[in-house]
Model the fold of this input.
Amino acid sequence: MINFKTKIAEQIAKVTNISKEELETYIEIPKDTSNGDYAFPCFRLAKELKKAPPIIAQEIKEKIEVDENIVTKIEIAGGYLNFYINKELMTKEVLGEMANGESYGKSTIGKGRNIVIDYSAPNIATPFHIGHLRSTVIGAALYKIYQYLGYNITGINHLGDYGTQFGKLIEGYKLWGEEYNIDQDPINELTKIYIRINELCKKDEKVLEACRDNFKKLEDKDPYCVELWEKFRKLSLQEFQKVYDLLGSKFDSWNGEAFYSDKMPEVIEILEKSGKLVESHGAKIVDLEDKGINTPCIIIKSNGSKTYATRDLEAIMYRARTYDYEKALYVTSYEQILHFKQVFEVAKLLGLDEKYTNGLKHVSFGMVLLPTGKMSTREGNIIKLEDLLNEAIERAKQIIEEKNPDLEDKDEVAKQVGISAVIFNDLSNSRVKDEIFDWDTILNFQGETGPYIQYTYVRTKSVLEKVEQLPEFSKINLSKLSDEYSQNIIKLLYNFEDTLIQVTNKEEPSILSRYLIELAKAYSSFYNENKIITEEQEIQDARVYLTYSVGKVLKIGAELLGMQMPNKM
Ligand code: ARG
Done:
């Protein structure tokens, strides 16, 4: 497709002294169609040119030479220049591209560029909770979108499979292992052992000592401790896999914290040499006060064990070397903002090329709240994820039973609808916002939900079923799509690729979810206002083809978010 934004930027570049690449990043797509298809804000040039933005706009408008077949009108509105694109050309570009197979919106922008994304990362022997679900869902959506744009992306499940808690679990298992059926229900049983041993540790210093000793032994590769640790890890992973199967999650690497356990001497040595590693109350820390971070980063605890942060530092070195990344993303809740600030700051001392430290990015997200308040382990209202997903499927099934009892493959569709509802809910608002988890809202077929996107998609499918054959693009009379409703859709379809690029600029999948809602709404208006199946063949063909195009983009977009699309529901 012709890239209209680039075309405009090229022309503005000729009359200013700013590169077209930079100008392209300034150009906006106005929300309100009365402001044209593209808007160039002149504010950024005001300081340099020492002129008022409206004057700059006027000057650019006078000097600029744009192809009239592409841009039909340029208007000044305040400090903005608004550009109007030839509608028929845009229509032709969009629909012509649809005819080229299944890759609408695919790009090569990411070719040869490496991205690492660290997401999901539940902790062994503890429940996979709703925060990990959010991380899994946001991470998977980003993964798919980057990949669609041609990036070389590596997804890492940085499992929490190491740390002093394993010393405790080993001790608990030694004492009472026989009493618990950990093969049957590993996570719950291990959690019970963990709680019990913690109680005992509080009362008995000697037991605590034994726990510490176990962890030390694990670090030193003592066979018995390693064997138990492997058992806990394996059983936990089997449990986690149930959730991953429901969500369809895949990872390229399962290197968790344990993977880095014997690689850490390197980090410590480098930090020692940098002179920044100092003793404090028996621990070794890096003070970050001068970087505006009040809490120091602990590298080695007073009992000699390394920390979560130390393992993350080693992981950075490993990822830089192994994946030569441009960006390394970390998807966790905002509770870890301080952790990543510290780690990213200390990483600058590791002697890595600057491009690696500049590429580190914490993709944080808000909490999941029940309508009644925070979900938390301590208050006991923790929801087991597998149960939650199964409940989503069950509820979707009930709705389908009411609405469409004769539907074929009800179970399969219920799974697609239920899981997608949960996924879409996780992605529908900007990620830093806390999210309210409310069944009625997320499963509402008419709300701004996953099921609504699916429902609209199914609608496009049933329209297509009414015609024998999809009309050929070359035979379509594009002028039949000049009405407002069709044009709203065309414009949205045109902006699909740009939407995906914005997602990767901000690591914000909600930009795509909002887009899909807009598209579904635009289609609903089109559907309500325009008769699609009519006597007039030319009109019908054009509208059917547009319907086909909407369906295609809804499906591609929804699948990029991790949803699955039913053909009927
Ligand atoms: N296991 C951690 C948790 O549950 C998340 C790990 C995130 N990744 C990382 N490299 N620190 O909170």
Summary: The longest helix spans residues 223-247. Confidence is low (pLDDT under 50) at residues 376-380. The chain is about 55% helix and 10% strand. Residues 118, 121, 123, 158, 160, 312, 315, 330, 332 surround arginine (CB under 6 Å).
